[in-house]
Design goal:
Layout lengths: L2 H17 L20 E4 L2 E3 L8 E5 L2 E5 L7 H10 L7 E5 L5 H4 L2 H8 L2 E5 L3 H5 L22 E3 L4 E4 L2 E7 L8 E8 L4 E7 L19 H13 L5 E4 L7 H4 L14 H19 L3
Parallel strand pairs: 4-5, 5-6, 6-7, 11-12
Antiparallel strand pairs: 1-2, 2-3, 3-4, 8-9, 9-10, 10-11
């Protein structure tokens, strides 16, 4: 391990220790959320650098890199190692994004932001939750902070474009799971083809309460209904999601597999997942 990697690990570790006693990360965390997974090239300049189930994505450009999601607080070292394994540097990260402001996707964001100086861009509707460490989240905020707070550098709105070098990511506002859940649509290319990629934040329902009982999120039912409809009409070549299990990563890719973007086409799987989520939603709201 190089001296630079060791120093980066140490900085991230110290950053996490500083806030460890201030954050109440849930205790019953699935083992797959922290289980290591070998990083790999998905398509073109898009790479998987997450854990076995918490999906994190690296987009590489000559002007710096974009990191989408960071997993748990303990995932910071794994992400750093994965990026280095692929031949890149965490320090080249210029933009941080997330598909949702829940601890399983942003808990290492503050530490990585400090160590890289990257700019944090977030859907405006998730900005408050990001800034207060999840304590105001309608579903998971009952016990205070679940991750270290992060102050966004820029707020995003539906249809906004995030640009770095020759990469242009369109943010799609897909609320419900959180108030500012979002997906990203962009194009990558390799030596043979160009691919339209969707990183989808699938609208799973995270509360057992009836929607009408959630006073802190009065538009939740309307938002879920909007998101489910909007996601059905998206056009793309490859699709991914916030959790590896949501897009069947482990059936489509095994560690050591050769580069194969076509494994992630699977439009049928995407619509099957949306249909299942639609059915869950309908059962919850009844015949409205």
């Amino acid at each position: 391990m190089s001296q630079k990697i060791v120093i980066t690990f140490c900085l991230l570790f110290v950053s996490l220790l500083v806030v460890a006693q201030q954050v109440n990360e849930p205790k019953d965390i699935p083992a797959d959320w922290s289980k290591p997974y070998k990083p790999f090239r998905i398509a073109g300049n898009l790479y998987y650098v997450g854990t076995y189930d918490l999906a994190c994505y690296l987009i590489v450009t000559p002007q710096g890199n974009i990191l989408i999601n960071t997993g748990l607080a303990s995932s910071a070292q794994q992400i750093t190692s994965s990026i280095e394994t692929l031949g890149f540097k965490l320090s080249d990260t210029k933009i941080l994004l997330t598909t949702q402001a829940h601890y399983d996707h942003v808990a290492a964001m503050a530490a990585i932001k400090r160590s890289t100086g990257a700019k944090m861009l977030v859907d405006e509707a998730d900005a408050r939750v990001l800034e207060d460490g999840g304590s105001s989240d309608y579903a998971l905020g009952g016990n205070g902070k679940t991750f270290e707070p992060v102050k966004p550098d820029q707020l995003l709105h539906d249809g906004d474009t995030i640009t770095l070098g020759d990469m242009h990511l369109v943010m799609l506002h897909h609320p419900g799971h959180t108030k500012g859940s979002c997906s990203f649509l962009f194009t990558v290319k390799d030596e043979k083809k160009t691919y339209r990629v969707l990183i989808a934040n699938m609208p799973t329902i995270v509360t057992d309460e009836s929607f009408s009982a959630i006073a802190t999120y009065p538009d939740i039912e309307k938002d879920y209904r909007y998101t489910l409809q909007a996601m059905k009409g998206l056009s793309f070549d490859l699709w991914l999601a916030s959790h590896a299990s949501q897009f069947a990563l482990h059936k489509k890719h095994k560690p050591g597999d050769k580069y194969n973007p076509a494994a992630f086409i699977d439009r049928a799987g995407y619509h099957k997942s949306l249909d299942e989520l639609q059915n869950h939603f309908q059962k919850k709201v009844g015949n409205k």
